[in-house]
Amino acid sequence: VPSFATPAQGYVLKLANPAEPPEVTDFQTQALLHLEAAHLPVPRVVRTLSGATEARTPQGILRLLTYLEGRPLHLVQASAALRRSMAAMNARITLGLQGFAHPAADHVLQWDIKQAASLRPMLPAIADAPLRALATRTLDHFDTAIAPRLPELRWQVVHADMNPHNVLVTADGHHIAGVLDFGDMVRTPLVCDLAVTASYQIDPADPLTCLTEFAAAYHAILPLTADEIALIPALVATRMLTTLAITSTRAARYPENAPYILRNFPSARDGLLALSRLDPTDTETALRRACGME
Question: Is pLDDT above 60 for 1?
Answer without folding.
Answer: no
